[in-house]
Design brief:
mainly beta; 16-stranded mixed β-sheet; 2 helices
Length: 285
């Protein structure tokens, strides 16, 4: 999942997408999850994104890349790639390193974060273009955070299929330049089907973006995503794990909905504790 511009757009429209795994039983499996997404506005293709997650006994690695055209200038054109490493503490994902490079029409962002216990211990980031209305970012905004990719590692609560509990959370996200909250709330259950991979039940969360610091208060993108916009994120299970990952993101717009939709959503290499290699496109029944 990555959208038109992979920084604020990543976690909100595309990190909103940014997008991937985590759960109490995650450390018991090893495998590789792959997803690809189409990005469209009013059903007109404007971009694409790919995501890969590799997970082992106690660590995970997520990479994501995407590109979008400039057909919808309100979202800008751009491309980017993100990568995060982390480990598991009590079955929960804890990022240790995050890197990103994104390019848009007027800005290039290079970021590297080192994170320990949710706090940024080292930060290297290119300076944003000067702007008097940029909200000041302080040291306090670098504490108690997750990176844009780990932010959407959603555990499957309880037993069985996806359920409403997955949506009851607020994600404190820091991308190296901006700090924002993504607030999730349960909306409904749904059924989804990828061209390759998963088909079955999914949970739909309403998403609210709350900018905290580092953003420009006059930003067109910030206004687009925060002024009463109806945003939905659909989470589907990752086969062989107790993880949920973004399957679809929809942002309602009077000019035509922005949709990030998975066309591939599958575990391509799973290694159970017995060492047997399997290919899983949908959860076992």
């Amino acid at each position: 999942m990555l959208v038109p511009h992979l920084n604020l757009r990543t976690a909100a429209a595309g990190a909103i997408l940014a997008l991937l795994l985590a759960a109490p039983d995650f450390a018991r499996a090893q495998g590789k999850f792959e997803a690809s997404y189409g990005i469209s506005v009013a059903r007109i293709p404007i971009g694409s994104a790919t995501a890969t997650a590799e997970f082992g006994d106690a660590h995970y690695l997520i990479t994501m890349s995407g590109r979008a055209s400039g057909m919808m200038r309100v979202l800008a054109s751009g491309d980017g790639s993100l990568r995060t490493r982390g480990s598991f503490t009590d079955g929960r994902p804890a990022p240790t390193e995050f890197t990103a490079r994104t390019t848009t029409d007027d800005d290039t962002l290079d970021v590297k974060l080192v994170i320990d216990g949710g706090n940024v211990t080292a930060l290297s980031a290119s300076e944003p273009p000067p702007d008097p209305d940029r909200v000041e970012l302080t040291d306090a905004h670098r504490r108690g955070i997750v990176d844009p990719l780990t932010a959407l590692l959603v555990p499957l609560e309880g037993a069985g299929a996806p359920n409403a509990a997955a949506c009851q959370r607020t994600l404190a996200v820091f991308d190296g330049r901006r700090r924002f909250d993504l607030k999730l709330a349960f909306k409904r259950m749904d059924t989804v089907k990828a061209e390759r991979g998963y088909a079955g039940p999914a949970v739909v969360c309403a998403v609210t973006l709350q900018p905290i610091a580092g953003h420009r208060s006059s930003s067109t993108m910030v206004k687009f995503l925060t002024q009463g916009r109806d945003i939905e994120m659909t989470l589907a299970p990752v086969a062989g794990t107790r993880l949920l990952a973004p399957f679809r993101i929809t942002i309602v717009n009077m000019l035509g909905n922005l949709v990030v939709q998975a066309n591939r959503f599958e575990v391509v290499h799973a290694v159970p504790t017995t060492g047997q290699t399997t290919h899983q496109g949908a959860p076992s029944r």
